[in-house]
Each structure stands twice: as structure tokens, then as C-alpha cells.
Amino acid sequence: MLLRDHRGSWGGLGLLRARGARPFDAADIARAARLGPALTAILRRCATRAPLVSAVSVPPTGVVLVGPDERIRAATPSALAWAEHMRAHVRAPEWITLASVTGLAMRARRLPSSSDAGPLVIGPAAVYGGWISVEAQPLDDDIAIVIQSAPHSQALAAFCDWYGLTPRERTMVTHLCDAFSAKQIARLAGLSLHTVNDHLKTIYRKTGATGRDELTAALNR
What we know:
two-stranded antiparallel sheet, about 50% helix, 5-stranded antiparallel β-sheet, alpha+beta
């Protein structure tokens, strides 16, 4: 079950039951659904209360190949390093990572061949020690899963959503990451310097950033 609100999807809730136990029924699903709003709020609080800039280094880009039988058949050394990194920081059973990779591969196979982009997951720094992206793309009969530190454009969009920044505030963050001064941002946005500074103060308050340097460091790793 997706954990989502009006801003987007923030995670998933999976129900597990011992082998041989009775299957889940509609009442179980309804009870789980009632937990959705509370779990979504908890996820966002966890992600946004962590330090903006983590001291943890992340591996280089890794690639995993998933065969037509949905089994992993090959992985680059850096992908194996990502697996170790996730085991250390996510603290989840290994099968969860494998299930996530398989799920992305299955999703990619269902997309039309004309699709320009495959399924993409952006993970928050609070969980992974840095913003990461996991993307699936068809490669002949296989599906290539690319795991990497999230490119700036992807991290920026996810960052603004997690921290609840408005479209105007998102524009301000974009200009900050492009190294524009407050005066330059005011000219670009057609606003007064006072208004721009008010927006920046709100952004720092929402994100917990001490200032421009910490905010841009979180997004430009």
C-alpha cells in the first residue's frame, strides 16, 4: 500500500503473515489503510529532522541486471558496494532490497516501449546518508537498475517535496544552488530584496539549514 498525501508518495506499507496462516482479508486491508496518514506523517518527520548534510560517503554509480525471470543475474562492483551501504544505513532485511529491485524491474517491463523514462525512486538523505536515485531501464531482455547519488535536478525536486517548500520557495532554492546572490534572485524573480530575504528565512526555517552554504551543500553532493 502506498503511503501518500496530497503532495505525493512517501513510502510503502507491506503486510506479512507467516506461511500457512490465513490470507489477509478486506478488514485487514481497511485497518492498514487507516494507519496510512499517521505513517506518512512519521516518515516525513523522520526524513526532515535528520541533519541536512551527512558525513557519510556514498559509492559511485552501480548497475544491476535483472533477467526475464526477475532474478538478479549480474551486478557491478559499485552496485555491490551500494548493497553494503544500504544494509548499513537502512537497517532492513536483505530481502527488502531485493524485493524493491525486483519490483522496479517488473514495473519497467510493463511500460510501453516508447516510454522515455523508466520507474524512478528518490531516497532521502535521512535514510541513505545522501540523496539517492534508483532507476530501471530496459536493456534487451534484461532490466538495468541504476543506483547512484541523485543528480541535482532529481534531488532538488524530492528535497522540496519532503520539506514542504512552495513553488516560489523552490525557485529560490534553485537560484541559490546556481550560486545567485539575493540581489540577483530579486532581479530574476521581479521581487524586492526584502521579499527575497523573507522567502530565504522561511526556507531555512523549514529545512533547518543554518544558511545558504549548508542548504546548497545538501543538494550539491
